[in-house]
Amino acid sequence: LTLITGPTDVFIALIKAALFGLTAGLIACYKGISVGGGPAGVGNAVNETVVFTFMALFAINVVATAVGVKAGT
């Protein structure tokens, strides 16, 4: 495993993990603070949070992986 991973791979993984955590947390906080409509609104906010977080993390992963591949070459 250490033969195929280098410092660049570890650095990119750490950056991606930090971005994923920050993004998921910010989206969840925003959706949680702006919820309205009682219990049904909370359910809708949770559903929207999951969908928006998935889309955001997918986009971040694509960009970060492309940057990582460019940096590794």
Describe the structure.
InterPro entries: Permease_MalE (IPR030802). GO terms for molecular function: phospholipid transporter activity. This is ABC transporter permease. With 73 residues, this protein is mostly helical. The protein has helices at residues 7-33, 38-72. It contains two helices and no strands. Helix 1 (7-33) packs antiparallel against helix 2. The longest helix has 35 residues, at 38-72. It starts with 6 loop residues before the first helix and ends with a helix.
- SSE series: HH
Distance between the termini: 19 Å
H/I helix tally:
2
Give me the Rg, rounded.
17 Å
Arithmetic mean pLDDT: 92
Sheet of most strands: none
The helix content is: over 70%
Category from helices, strands and their pairing: mainly alpha
Summary?
Keywords: Membrane, Transmembrane, Transmembrane helix. By secondary structure, the chain is mostly helical.
Characteristic key phrases:
single chain; elongated; 2 helices; 73 residues
What is this structure's SSE topology?
Elements: H1 7-33, H2 38-72
Helix pairs in contact: 1-2
